[in-house]
Predict the structure.
Amino acid sequence: MLTLNRIAQRSIAFYRSSTLLVALGVAAATAVILGALLVGDSVRGSLKGLVMDRLGRIEWMLLAPKFFHQATVQRLASSPTLGDNLEQPIPAIVFPRGTVEVARGDARSRSGSVLVIATTEEYWTLGGVSPSARPVGNEVILNQSLANELGVKTGDEVTLRLPSEQAVPADSPLGKRDDQTEGIPRLKVVGIVSDQGLGGFDIRGSQRASRNIFIPLETVQRALRREGSINCVFIGSKNIRPTVFSNDEADEKGNLLLSAMKLDLQDFGVKVERIQRVFPDPERKETSEQAPTTIYDYFHVTSEQLLFMPSAEDAIRRAIPVDASDSVLTYLANGIELANPANTNAPNKVVTYSTITGSDFGSTFPFNQQENKPKLNDGECIVNSWLADELNAKVGDELLVHYYLPETSNGKEIEESFKSKIAVIVPITKPVSGFDRRRLARFDKPPTLFNDPNLTPVVPGITDQDSISDWDLPFVLDRKPSSEDDLYWKEHRLTPKIFLKLAESQERFGSRFGKVSSFRVSPSANMDQAELERRILEELRKSTAEQGFMMTPLRSNQMRAASGTTPFDMLFLSLSFFVIISALLLVSLLFRLGIEQRADQLGLLAAMGWSPKKIHGLLMREAALTSLIGSSIGIGLGFGYAYLMILGLKTWWVGAVSTPFLQFHWTPLSVAIGFLAGVIVTWFSTVVSIRRLIRMPATRLLRGQTTPQLMRKQGKPGWLGRVVLVVGLLAIAIGGVGYGLSGQAQAGAFVGSGMLLLTAALLETYRRLRLVPGSDSNANANISNLPGLASRNIRCNPLRSSLAVGLISVAAFLVLAMSLFQAKPDLKSAGGFELMAESSLPIVRDLNSPEFQKQILGNKALQLADSTIVPFRLRAGDDASCNNLFQSTQPRVLGVPDSLATVDADQPVTTQFPWAAKSKDSESPWQLLAKNAQGTQADPLPVVLDQNTAMWSLHRGASIGEVFSFDFSGQQVYFRTVGLLQNTTLQGSLLVGERNFERVFPDVVGFQFFLIRAASNDAAAIATILESGWGDEGLDVVQSADVLQQLFAVQNTYLSAFQALGALGLLLGTFGLAVVQIRSVMERRGELALLRAVGFPGNRIGMLLFTESATLLLLGAGLGAACAIISALPVWLRGQSISDFQQPAIMMLVVIIVGLFAGAAAVLRALRLPILDALRGK
Amino acid sequence: MSNLVVQNLRKVYQTPTEELSVLDGINFELKPGENLAVMGPSGSGKSTLLHILGTLDNPTSGNVVIDGTDPFSLDATRLAAFRNDKIGFVFQDHHLLPQLSILDNLLLPALARGRPKDEAVERAKQLVERIGLAGRIGHLPSELSGGERERTAVARALMMRPSLILADEPTGNLDQANATKIADLLIELQQQEKAILIVVTHSHDLAARLMRQVKLDRGRIVEDK
């Protein structure tokens, strides 16, 4: 039965040569679309493959910022929580940023930021690739990447440097600023394990291999004096295929696993003890006639870190009874003296190194009649009788108290003073014998409430020393303790001499590290020590994440991050844009040509009463069938195209993905989408191509005429002329705006302007091709020569000729103009800082300090004389630069010091950091970072981002004022963008003000990231000096230009890929042009045969056809090139390099030559036509 | 009641330089079973007249009424349906679709209304039989001679039982013998179907076989006999 489908099938079969040509065009378009999708599949598949490979079956990981008991692992192992799906937990100590050194003679090779994994043999059971030897004792295994970097082989010895444990944060005056590393020397390398498998284990997602060292757990525990302690637990899954958890699932399962570990108070670093002072105390061998009396009796809750971090403080407050407890903050005063001494002639007496306690003296202070509860106003203090006697002070006198600010500035202690009026003098009893290392002070008279040294927390190296001069302090005691001070120390140790209101004390001495040094809780009938411990533990366990304990679904998180920052399928679709467009134009041209060849059939159908809709329906069926055939062929080609793209990404485009890790992957979904997309877009392009044909009058179609009648007389612009004028003016306007811009914005404006110019030129070309030469034109003269005749022939089908010119010109324009976007490293992109550095371990002291430089570097410090080093705090996180293909979930955060704004502003404009966008509030967004904020939704932290990081990696924060958030280990932090840097060395991080950084990440100490301006010094020499001076901290100094080169490589590689694929599109266009030319020759075979019949020699006809083909090709290439050159002119006029244009210009030249050859092939085909048959129209 | 009425028909083309009058005041009427030969030199307006009568082109002014309907008052869809129902074309270049068989070529007009029904297929087979090509019903046009192709085109024109058959130089490409056969067939079928036949031709022999002959010159009827 005759149906539309049947006619369509018959037509396709009958006109199979035309159909095949169109189908090949469709196949090319489908192949490119499918190929791009398969590249996306391959990137995602390869990233997921990397995760599965590197993590093996490790499903969960707990990596805590502090040590906890290894016994927790046994508890978890015996818990039913593991269920049937999880393996036994494996204990480990993991340091993400260790340093490994190898000595060769006097020289040392060093690798910083090495992932140190100290674990047991069971670790290797969770992955596929195991090392041949297992390390024991002082043996280690390195992975291939680390071994390659250090140049180490099996049998060599290395030194491992780890961060040493600090009870007191290094940024506080009592924290140790130096000797922060613990070295484990002479570790024998017994094996090099492949980066594949667990040897390449990484706690963060990156396609680059992590550099890992594996060492026995016991070796590290022994070296750190942490036997029986760990900071990490791995839990493997029994399934090889990873489970991807939702956030809620991950929280729920992670919490269950953590609860099964039953972390205790010690794991949280909290200690509860009962402090009871009875007089006389038989244990102290005190004797007295009076009956034993309790002086004070309370539960003392302390932290092993001297102060409670705010999260722990909150948990404990929730656990203890408000009305039966007191908070205490005790701090060190460097000196106490009378503010207004009576005798101004004599040197003022200063009591040195005393403690000051802040408390509100609540229920845990059982005052009796002799010790009335003192009442304090602001600015008033209580002093003990010893201090009053020592200073000869009385109630009403003002004291001047000297103390260090609770946080150092660049590792330097800052001393401040305050005055406080004595409101009360409280008694303190002198013991008959003082403290020594093994004995407590002994009294013969009852001590008072204020004879309580427990008000000061235990600080190893201080509270256990016999004399103040023996204190192990990170700073020099520049006030000499008097003999009386030392006597007090012996008799009372750190019993506070001054008491302030808690609020005042916290205001002066509180910091991000905490505001409470201990809690005192009154014992009662329903609050014994066990109950108190139970309550505190319960609250701490409720907030494990805040305390730093978080069971992370590592494999799930990384699998999710493996979805990638960049949708590579979309990216490659964009990069292949011109190949697709060329293919579609080709399909459009060929399909239309095919239909035009049998235009009379359309006329006939119209004459028989077929409605235009029906005729259209028939052609659409033909087009759809052709698309289906072509797309089916395109599937095979798409696999080949994808394979080539991946080969490109592994070789000459490797800069786009940093490392050649890609493997070919495909999914049926992509094939289906690619196939359908190919069918749809090509079908659509055919629909468009014949839209006008359908509307042609049947009478013309019956005569085989398919072109619209020539329209206007020359000289009248018409509506198209007006459009050309408007578009041209718009191009000039945008170009003018671009002149006032810089960098990529300027390039964008110039290219946009050039594109509009090209549009105007193409429209004008079309307009002119449509024109009928007027009677006044010398039309006869025009065809008196071959170019004139060729010109007339080109005009015969203005749309087809314009499409051919358009295809070539647009491709030529983009191939050339994209060179404008090629980025090159310059000092401005580095903010004028020639060097950048990052250390494995924090450096607390000021690297700019000449004294510190001299202390570390000796005479070499002179070479740093004019250099400037800007230190940044760093919270380690995912690299969110374009070099990392994994989706960043917890990006790296840098704390920007206030000084950067000044340093940046003091530079010439040519080397200040370039901004893509900034808030209008201020000249420099660096200044806006200093605004205090809490990081909440209502009060987000001002943040500066590199535009590329915001747009392509984080996919958020890319506009000024945008508020966005990230979850940092259970803590949701909100940011508000105040500035977007333009393609700088600071890509990949969130940049927040230092004060805000300290507020949000209080546990981060010291500085780990540095920008270094070498000034007049030799940058390379400075790099060497700094690396040698701070090698223990793993300081790694790099040239900013190298960093930029690597960052720009991504963008530049994409541009090169775009240009290469654009050239491929252009090539396809020239082939298309040749095919069109052949078809055109077939169409005009009668005319050509006539020319031959009337005596035109073959070479002259050949020249005519070649001129037509070459005119279109050269007109297209010329228009594209001219507009590209006009776009680039302002850049050249500013003295920028034009070398970037050489490669694409060569590409263009090759394409034109190939195009001319293809045109010549069409000519040869025409010349082979038999004259007589052609004249008969056969 | 007349089945074809042409009143004061004019057709003017606008060229870049001037107005070109192709038809200028054409009037005639034809009844079912009547036939007419239109003759005249090249450029006299014969084909334009045929196209306007076939509703493929619009007149500049004047009226054409076919079976009581002014086709130019219809929208495009209705006009196509009207053409399918009332008009059959025979062209000098038979315009058979080379990819379709004889039968399918005949069924093409029926397909304009949707899938051809059994009676349409039956009608096509009858017509094929009447033109003497029953044994070649499944052949492609390329497998037929010129005369056979033209006969097929005639049969196709009659497929929808049109009121008006328009033939444009139907014998122009044929030898004398074939031309005579085609003329016989065309007139015979027209008479059998009681349709109106208008033939544009340069052939005096063919014209002479028709009931009425008009001669056009510069768009006007200069002779009507």
